[in-house]
């Protein structure tokens, strides 16, 4: 599922709770407007809110990481940090910019911090990227 693509193309509001299959979140710049993980997570939240459903930060983050690997039936190979798994990782700053910093400062728990990150973060939050264990950014 790429909410950025669905929104840009006007292809409808995805019924996540009603999906008869495992849902993964990713980017699709061919139809969307960004490759940014946090922007796509934020768009997923907004689409579900328009449908009257609430998408938790944990559900969204899982769908973009471990859940995506499981949906592809690759959970033993990718999607986690277990010994023997291949991992491509991004390290993110919680908050960049005054609005995100102010929101992060009042977060009451980890879920609220992740939610603020997924709805307010962008490429400025990216601290590092590792591909197959090698730092690339």
Automatic annotation (TrEMBL):
The keyword Metal-binding applies. InterPro entries: Amidohydro-rel (IPR006680), Metal_Hydrolase (IPR032466), Metallo-dep_hydrolases (IPR051607). Keywords: Hydrolase, Metal-binding, Zinc. The keyword Secreted does not apply. GO terms for cellular component: cytosol. It comes from the Eukaryota. GO terms for biological process: guanine metabolic process. One of its GO terms (molecular function) is zinc ion binding. Residues 1-134 form the Amidohydrolase-related domain. Its cofactor is Zn(2+). It holds the Pfam family Amidohydro_1. This is Amidohydrolase-related domain-containing protein. It comes from Hemiselmis andersenii.
